[in-house]
Amino acid sequence: MNRIFNLLTSALPLVIIGGLLYAGLFIKPQPQGAALARPVFERGDRFYGLAVEQDGRAWVVGSGGKIARTEDSGRSWRIQRSAVDVSLQDVAAWDGRHAVAVGNGGAVIVTDDGGMLWRGVEAPHNKIANKLMRVKALAGGQAWAVGEGGSVLRSTDFGSTWRQVGPEEDIAWNDISFHEKLGWMVGEYGRIRVSNDDGASWHEVKSPTKMSLMSVAFKDAENGVAVGLNGVILVSHDGGKTWTQERFVSPDQSPQTIQTDDRLEAGKVYERGRLEHLLDVIWDGERWVAVGSKGIVVIGSTDASEWKATRLSPDDRNWYTSIARSPTQYYLVGSRVVTTQEMKAL
Question: Around 168, how many Cα atoms within 13 Å sit in the side-chain half-sphere?
């Protein structure tokens, strides 16, 4: 009996080792719990353009061809597969299904199913440069895109095909805007062009600045604003024929504390001067709103004669390249993506 016991005892380590080897070779562990989802917005992301619809849906586009979509007014976002890996500079939408995005290297991508599939399309390239900066979607499937190398592109079929309007030239056009058949373009060296025939022809008008203009918007056929580097603000009241320059003071000079809403926290008001770069401007239905570097948000009166500056929060030094307003809130994109319910008048 002792002999049998001794044999079993001596064999026990071999049995344990054999069992461990079998488990390691033939038994595959089953994962427990859900894998951590990759966040939509990651450290190092940069977003340059956005398109906002009236029903809570919006797109944002940016570095590495990244596209994000919300259908609930920014409460949640999901990544959409892009057809490119270059930085996308802007996106525009005709409706919830049709949209177009443009970017570096002359990239143009379109969707006709709400972004389930984005596909690349051919667009004219030039010999100087091919970075497309802005795209605007107009009624009837029309679109305009502008960029470096004098690129001025037009589409009439929801972005599927494009043609160059005008010659190649050594200038970057940074934005384009239309009101009915009137059009305006702004770009490097303060240059401004105007069209009164739906973009068929363009003529240059005198500009009071040599600073690069980054954005232009008109609220009607007569009244518009252009903004640019070094805090330049230009105002026109005659359809872009003539422009005058307005000023504001940096949020880092002569502050006065003001009351803002809960999302924006306390801000600061400043009245004259210019320091920060302004990269986008919109007419929000009530007033002008411009955004730019160092967290700057500049509010213009209805007639664009008075401009005051603040930040989303006192310590905000993010840069914002684009702003848009839906019926319920504002969207800002740049070094981060921000939504806010309201910006009270300064």
Answer: 8
pLDDT reported for residue 271:
37
In single-letter form, the type of residue at position 282 comes to I
* Beta carbons of 117 and 110 less than 8 angstroms apart: no
Rounded to 5°, angle at Cα 318 from 313 and 320: 105
The whole-number pLDDT of residue 22 equals 53
What element of type H or E holds 78?
strand 78-80
User: What is the Cα–Cα distance from 84 to 274, expressed in whole angstroms?
Assistant: 37
Write a three-state SS string for 325-337: ECCCCEEEEECCE
Is 76 in contact with 56 (CB distance < 8 Å)?
no
Residues paired with residue 322 on neighbouring β-strands, in sequence order: 333
DSSP 8-state assignment for residue 35: P
Q: Supply the pLDDT for residue 2.
A: 52
Residues 6+ apart with CB under 8 A from 36: none
Spatial distance between the Cα atoms of 217 and 13, rounded to a whole number of angstroms: 81
Q: Looking at 170-295, which runs of residues are DSSP E strands?
A: 173-179, 182-187, 192-195, 203-205, 213-218, 224-228, 233-236, 244-246, 256-258, 267-269, 278-283, 288-292
Reading phi first (left if > 0) and then psi (alpha if -120 to 50, else beta), residue 314 is in alpha
Structure tokens at 5: 């016991």
Whole-number pLDDT of residue 270: 34
Whole-prediction pTM value? 0.83
Identify the CA nearest to 191 among candidates 220, 154, 219, 152. 152
Burial 183-213 (b: 16+ CB within 10 A, else e): bbbbbbebbbbbbbeebeebeeeebebebbb
Give 10-residue mean pLDDT values along the chain (346 residues): 50 52 52 59 92 93 97 94 95 97 98 97 90 98 97 98 93 98 98 98 97 98 98 98 91 48 34 71 96 95 94 92 94 95 56
